[in-house]
Specification:
Radius of gyration: 17 Å
CATH topology: Rossmann fold
Order of helices and strands: EEEHEEHEHHHHEHEHEEH
Number of domains: 1
CATH architecture: 3-Layer(aba) Sandwich
CATH class: Alpha Beta
Number of strands: 10
Helix content: 25-40%
Largest sheet: 6 strands, mixed
Number of helices: 9
Structural class: alpha/beta
CATH superfamily: P-loop containing nucleotide triphosphate hydrolases
Distance between the termini: 34 Å
């Protein structure tokens, strides 16, 4: 049974055709990564699921319901949350104000105190403005903010980008805890070594298509192929 089914997903930015028939599934409670080189279409896939590209076609089904014709706010209310690579922290607002900004879309969101247990740094910086946070703290705030909403499917775009190793480890532990609590996570990640520590399965993208997939347990056996795909 799949929670999210993406079938023949096409996407455009203006006249530029970026996704060329993306197909994959995510099952409840899984952590699944989209791997690929820069420009492969990974971020656009997350944006197309959320309905924030210029134009899209194909099928995106969540909990059996078709989302392709819905606006992004209705997709969010269906129970999907997107954490963009640029994090989207409001510089003029405090940590607390940023955290409380998104509305709850469903019951079951994490209480603020629970978010502070995951990210103790945020509690210490509660009155700080967004501009005063380190990159790692901004990432914690961006993830914490969507956990409040009640969404059960989290789309995380490059959550470890530019972060120190100790913060990457903390993000990894958080993803593990969220999985244990029943969240489902679709993760775009350049760092496949990090992805291997958190994910159940991996899809490889190239030129706006999914070209391969591996179970995490099979990564070692496919490492040469993966190096070739990713150019590492």
């Amino acid at each position: 049974m799949s929670l999210l089914t993406v079938d023949d997903l096409q996407a455009w930015y203006g006249e530029s055709h970026v996704l060329h028939g993306v197909n994959f599934v995510v099952r409840p409670g899984e952590v699944v990564t989209l791997l690929g080189r820069n420009g492969a279409g990974k971020t656009t896939t997350l944006k197309a699921i959320m309905g924030i590209v210029g134009k899209r076609s194909g099928s995106v089904r969540y909990e059996g319901n078709e989302l392709i014709a819905l606006t992004s706010d209705r997709i969010a209310r269906a129970g999907i949350a997107y954490c963009p690579e640029e994090r989207g922290i409001f510089a003029s607002l405090t940590v607390e104000e940023n955290l409380l900004l998104p509305p709850q879309v469903r019951p079951g969101g994490l209480a603020v105190e629970r978010i502070f247990e995951l990210f103790p740094n945020l509690k210490e910086r509660l009155r700080s403005q967004g501009t005063k946070l380190s990159g790692g703290e901004q990432q914690m705030l961006a993830i914490g903010r969507i956990l409040r909403t009640g969404a059960r499917l989290l789309l995380l775009d490059e959550p470890t980008e530019g972060l120190a190793p100790v913060i990457i480890q903390q993000i990894g532990r958080t993803i593990g805890m969220l999985k244990q609590q029943g969240f489902t996570i679709l993760l775009v990640e350049q760092n496949f070594r990090f992805a291997a520590t958190v994910a159940d399965r991996h899809y490889v993208m190239e030129n706006g298509r999914v070209i391969d997939q591996f179970a995490n347990a099979d990564l070692d056996a496919n490492m040469a192929k993966l190096h070739d795909y990713l150019g590492v």
